[in-house]
Amino acid sequence: MAVNNVGSNAGAVGTQQTGDAGFQNQLAEFEAVSRKVQSQAITMRRITTELSSEKKVADERVQ
């Protein structure tokens, strides 16, 4: 008993293209989120360094 799969290949190609577009959208969203997180990490590092410097100055004044 043979099964005719000729028509199902066209559906698979359409699904593949939709999947590729979805993947590209996810990749673009990931890159945007990654840039945002990287920017926040840099900001946090700068703030941490400034607070550490201020703490050192305050500690020297107390001694």
Can you describe what's shown?
This protein is mostly helical and 63 residues long. The chain has a domain at 34-63. 90% of the residues lie in helices and 0% in strands. The protein has one helix spanning 6-62. The radius of gyration is 27 Å and the shape is rod-shaped.
Average pLDDT for all residues: 84
Uncertain ranges: none
Compressed to H and E, one letter per element, the order equals H
Largest sheet: none
- Give the termini separation: 92 Å
Layout of strands and helices, then pairs:
Blueprint: H1 6-62
Please outline what is shown here.
This protein has one helix and no strands. It is mainly alpha-helical. The N and C termini lie far apart (92 Å).
Features:
rod-shaped; 90% helix; single chain; 63 residues; mainly alpha
